[in-house]
Amino acid sequence: MDATSLRRGGNDLLAILPEATLNRMAPHCSRVSLRMGDVISEADRPITSAVFVENGVASLFKVGGPPDTEVALVGHEGFCGIPIVLGGESWPYQVIVQADHLTGVEIAAATLQHLMADDAVLRRILLGAVQVRLVQASESLISNARQRLNQRLARWLLMYRDRMRSDQLPVTHKDMAAMVGVQRTGVTAALHEMEGHGMISSRRGLVTILDVPALLALAASGYGAPEEQQARLLDKG
């Protein structure tokens, strides 16, 4: 790979890295193509590589329960492999492909750590991306504690839309139940309510967003803080 390919592939973090950094990274990178359900890294196992997502969505799950619970979403705005950046080897979360198809740029964990040690800009941007993810996870906790189910679901649909870059969201009721930590019947009822207000349309395996402003109003303070952090990171470059 070369620097131009990395910059133009679709990942927001790679797009703002300096040419010199990309030139150092490129010889160690390769493209990956994964399908829904593919595991990017296992819980409590050494994470051997980072994946900078270009298209598609990955989910961080706390496995076990039941049900399994989503911790965070990752798309073109970030990367999978936070413990690598923080100097760790593993964490208690499984990372899997959520959307139909995910493409990205993969780099070995040891190589990325070596590059970070010698490149202050790379280190700053990746740590900034970690901060964005921490804010996202924290806001999820706040939303789960304070907001009604339909508000939490609106928040998640907006986040998923951001990462899919589409109003057509391939997702099942079962998947959404795991995302917001409730039973599937609760999600079905909330979706029917949203449909009744013209915010979405829903059929088997697909949710179509029809009214973004209405979803934003419903999500209220549950949506926006991580997105603001991400915008600041990209503006600083």
UniProtKB/TrEMBL annotation:
SMART domains: HTH_CRP. Signal peptide: none annotated. Keywords: DNA-binding, Transcription, Transcription regulation. GO terms for molecular function: DNA binding; DNA-binding transcription factor activity. Residues 147-213 form the HTH crp-type domain. The keyword DNA-binding applies. GO terms for cellular component: cytosol. The keyword rRNA-binding does not apply. InterPro entries: cNMP-bd_dom_sf (IPR018490), Env_Response_Regulators (IPR050397), HTH_CRP (IPR012318), RmlC-like_jellyroll (IPR014710), WH-like_DNA-bd_sf (IPR036388), WH_DNA-bd_sf (IPR036390). It holds the Pfam family HTH_Crp_2. This is CRP-like cAMP-binding protein. The lineage of its organism: Bacteria, Pseudomonadati, Pseudomonadota, Alphaproteobacteria, Sphingomonadales.
